[in-house]
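Service request form, structural biology core

Requester: graduate student, group of Dr. S.
Request type: structure prediction, single chain
Budget code: on file
Notes: please return the result as structure tokens.

Sequence provided:
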Amino acid sequence: MMIPPFKVKAYTLSEVVIVMVITLIVVALSFSVLNMVNKQVQAVSYQYALNHEIKELKTALSLDFLNHSEVILVDNSQIIFKSPVSKKEYNHHGLVITREQDSFNIPVKQVVAWLKGKPVTAGKIDAVEIEYEYADIVSKLFVYRSNSCLDNF
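Core staff response, request fulfilled:
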């Protein structure tokens, strides 16, 4: 008795190659999308950290303007806050502003000091404007002391 031949159902080599090529394209696209998402997450994370640093610097400057009776701009890179009981120094070093043990990582372009509405280059000040840049967008932080009418006498 003879055994009838039977046919094994399988894919041809060309069908398998086509499936592998399509799979390779899908995997390559998914990696490129994953890379774009990763870059976006890093940008958002940096922007959040920068906003946090700016808020911390604004809070520290506001408190120092409030708590110190005299604010002096030594040069364009150093501001000294003086009171009878304490002294605080702010130093500007390119991408970092330092205040005692604190450092604020802010990409500063320019610092402008003001006294009674006019920019000054040295001496007493009552406001400071810090210009910083991120992603080709320039923003400003302005912190000031409220002057009383008695300061004019």
